[in-house]
Amino acid sequence: MGRSDKREILRVINDFMQGNYRADGVLLKSVFHEKAMMYGFFGSELRLCNPGTYIESITQATSMELQKCNYKLIIEHIFLQGDVASVIATETGFLGTHKLVDCFHLVKVDGLWSVIARLFTTS
Question: With a threshold of 0.85, does the pTM exceed it?
Fold first, then answer.
């Protein structure tokens, strides 16, 4: 695993976390590939959407920062092969009380890493 690739992947995931925490739509948009999709369960509800829909819902709510949520994202595993990568992460304190497990799939296009798909579930 190249150090610079790993560093950039970690930056993308950190930007996702910071964008969520601060309800920063610009930062959240920057982590996703233009053709990215998101799939998963929030509680028992299956959600299938593009990042724009997700970003809109995050930015319309009071930020977790202003709510003083104890929100954290912990990376459990990184897999990197060439220009693709997967990151398994756990989010706690999401919107105050939720715990999520995320599988981020990233691609490196023109030297830049971005999330092409996010698969998630609450636990």
Answer: yes
